[in-house]
Request: fold
Amino acid sequence: MKLSEIKEILPTLQNVEFQLEDATFVPEHFHVTEVGEITKKFIDCGGVIRNEKVVNFQLWNADDYEHRLKPGKLLNIIRLSENKLGMEDAEIEVEYQSTTIGKYDLEFNGKHFILKNKKTACLAEDACGIPVEKPKVKLSEIQSSSCTPNSGCC
Reply:
């Protein structure tokens, strides 16, 4: 989800709720402690230099159980961050602590924001010698007119 998308969604909501892919919710007394822009410059295993830029939201739980972040407040935090930091309309990455700090992609299911698990990947598979996965085919689904039972071809 891009920054522009969350800015369109927030005014339509009564509450801001984040849910993990395992269906558990981030406790409703969470704080957004950071909104920023992260730039990553790196070289992949194939020798290609790459640049990535994401908008980062950091979620944090405190012991102030009466705290509830409303959509308008989060929208104001985003607008302030855009103004002060000159942020671009980039993909959002959410940091949230479970057993360690996790990084998640963000989606919206029509009611809640979903923290989607991120996965590592090789960006230069052709340079690493990773074989292309062969398609799996069921032999029973192959139709061949060239060889039939009792035809003597097999």
Summary: The two ends are 55 Å apart (CA to CA).
